[in-house]
């Protein structure tokens, strides 16, 4: 009898494992750049928070202009890209942000060695990920705060962060707006930081979760599970410096000093609960759209309550 029971336990244990795996629901999430702006989602993956919520999350890198369109087409469920997606919403795309993870950008304005001040950028080329993306908005905001009209520089769309870094090194452009960890790598190599987050005149969110309006109506439970995973990641990051730094270092092959600094900057940039004030969103949208057409925090707040974060 004991032998039979042992055989049954082994058999059903073997059978249950693949069934559990089948229960995970696949979700696809786009991000635009390999940088620390995706830390929340990389931590959620590494720590298994998506799986805890019954989700098998796939992170897919996309050009910022494509993230919102891919959500619209049903190719992916979520995009984390903020600036380009927000512009699409303002122009009429039926998308909404259900959370905002990075409430303000940590970009630095990094120039070639021979350029020492903001005024030296006149007539020079600014490399950006995509036209009117968050890095361009941050660069222009920093220029204005230091007395330079952004129209004095030529904007060149180049793509992902490593591409922009290489373009700066090769002299294709003279300045880029770059966030961690690439800013510190460049500064260690002698490039100049002409301005930083402290010079921004307004908060510029860098990442969130945007979904199609129809998905909000059709699959609210799915969205809330994703939000619970993301909120767990927020809480973990603030409470666990060592492990978060390790994940950041592994994700972008960062040495310890750069990883540690990236973690400290992340604490300054991240939202604690996945929200930003409506007043900040109104500034960004210039009130061209009612806020209830831009963001919907209802599921986020349910998730916050369930996790004891409100």
Describe the protein in words:
This protein is of the alpha/beta class and 310 residues long. The chain folds into 2 domains: 24-104 and 205-306, D-Maltodextrin-Binding Protein, domain 2 (3-Layer(aba) Sandwich), CATH 3.40.190.10; 108-199, Periplasmic binding protein-like II (D-Maltodextrin-Binding Protein, domain 2). It is built from 14 helices and 10 strands. It has a 5-stranded mixed β-sheet with strand order 2-1-3-10-4, sandwiched between helices. The model is unreliable at 3-12 and 14-21 (pLDDT under 50).
Structure summary, number of beta strands: 10
> Which architecture of the largest domain would the CATH scheme give at its second level?
3-Layer(aba) Sandwich
- Which fold does the CATH topology of the largest domain refer to? D-Maltodextrin-Binding Protein, domain 2
Overall morphology: globular
What do the pLDDT scores average to? 89
How much of the sequence lies in strands comes to 15-25%
The SSE order reads HEHHEHEHEEEHEHEHEEHHHHHH
Label the structural class.
alpha/beta
Uncertain stretches = 3-12, 14-21
Largest sheet, spatial ordering of strands: 2-1-3-10-4
Question: What is the oligomeric state here?
Answer: single chain
Question: What is the highest CATH level, the class of the largest domain?
Answer: Alpha Beta
Radius of gyration computed on alpha carbons: 21 Å
Domain module count: 2
Relevant CATH superfamily of the largest domain: Periplasmic binding protein-like II
């Amino acid at each position: 009898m004991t032998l039979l029971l042992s055989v049954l336990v082994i058999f059903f244990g073997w059978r249950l494992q693949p069934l559990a795996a089948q229960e995970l629901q696949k979700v696809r999430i786009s991000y635009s750049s390999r940088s620390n702006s995706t830390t929340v989602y990389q931590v959620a993956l590494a720590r298994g928070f998506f799986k805890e919520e019954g989700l098998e999350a796939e992170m897919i890198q996309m050009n910022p202009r494509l993230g919102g369109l891919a959500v619209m087409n049903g190719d992916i469920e979520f995009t984390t890209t903020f600036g380009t997606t927000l512009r699409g919403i303002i122009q009429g795309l039926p998308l909404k942000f259900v959370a905002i993870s990075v409430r303000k950008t940590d970009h630095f304005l990094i120039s070639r060695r021979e350029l020492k001040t903001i005024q030296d950028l006149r007539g020079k080329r600014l490399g950006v990920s995509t036209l009117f993306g968050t890095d361009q908005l941050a660069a222009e905001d920093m220029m204005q705060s230091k007395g330079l009209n952004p129209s004095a520089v030529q904007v060149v769309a180049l793509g992902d962060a490593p591409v922009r870094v290489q373009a700066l090194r090769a002299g294709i452009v003279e300045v880029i707006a770059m966030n961690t960890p690439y800013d510190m790598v460049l500064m260690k190599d002698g490039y100049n930081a002409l301005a930083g987050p402290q010079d921004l005149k307004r908060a510029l969110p860098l990442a969130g979760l945007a979904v199609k309006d129809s998905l909000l109506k059709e699959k609210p439970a799915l969205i809330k599970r994703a939000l619970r995973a993301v909120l767990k990641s927020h809480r973990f990051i603030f409470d666990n410096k060592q492990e978060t730094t390790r994940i950041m270092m592994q994700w972008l092959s960062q040495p310890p000093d750069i990883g540690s600094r990236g973690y400290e900057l992340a604490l300054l940039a991240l939202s604690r609960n996945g929200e930003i004030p409506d007043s900040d969103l109104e500034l960004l949208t210039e009130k061209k759209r009612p806020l209830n057409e831009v963001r919907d925090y209802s599921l986020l707040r349910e998730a916050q309550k369930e996790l004891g974060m409100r």
